[in-house]
Amino acid sequence: MSRLPFIVCGLVVILFLVYSSIFIVTPTQQAIVLRFGEITRVESKPGTYFKVPTRFIDTVQFVDSRILRLDIDNLRVQVNDGRRYVVDAFVAFRITDPFKFRKTDSGNLDLLEANLRTRLDAALRSVYGQRSFEDALSEERLQMMLEVRDQLRPQADVLGVEIVDVRILRTDLLAEVSTQTFERMKAERLAEAAQIRARGTQASIRIKAEADREATVTVAEAQRDADILRGEGDAERNKVFADAYERDPDFFQFYRSMKAYETGLGGNGTTMVLSPDSEFFKYFNDASGLLAASNAARNSAGASGTAGSSEKSGQTRSPASNQ
User: What is the pTM assigned to this prediction?
Assistant: First the structure.
């Protein structure tokens, strides 16, 4: 009975030594085994591992192997024209080398995040400083995030960290810069609108001038053709009058006088003061004039009838003469 306490104490000591010599690595962890503060090995695969019992010789530090996120908010950056943006961004990273992580940051995650925040701040300022004002709000934004990521990767590798991705969440103008930008954009748009209106006015004047020129040419050509046709008609009319005059001057004179009476004495209320002995009233006062005109008309008709009869007689006699 006196040995039982010693046996129990021995079992407790053995269990303590066995328990303190075992450590388990989960799928989301990595383990750094330290002996008197110096790294002896790193276990990255999940499983059960052993070390020297108790925590006085070997200690184990667990490191998260999952993807972690570090946010940086309200960072003021300056583009190459001097204007400033307020930027929110984050970096996704993973600790891939616990040995370097322990050496550089003593395995302290807060210290690691502080180092990454400093490097992310510098990379964002560098990338934005090489861009124009418009690039930060355009499709260049994706390229800027890739450049920030590529700048961080070599620096993070020294810390035992892999940079998975960098994202820019927000890019806003400062209040004073926003007002200045709005005024500048307004002035640019007004200038562009004035330029467009000036080009439109110039095009309108040119089109109107071309249309007026074409209208003038068309009217001139039409007037020319009308004058030509009118001249040809007048020439034809004069030719007809000349032929009529040559055939029977008395009848032609009578016809012209009748047309003059029709024009001068029409029902338009015209008052004429003429001497009764004037040439105009020749066919009113002189019966011989009427008679001469009638005789001329009959002579003309008779000459035409005689010529027609002669032609018919000639056509009738020609068969007999041939006989």
Answer: 0.50
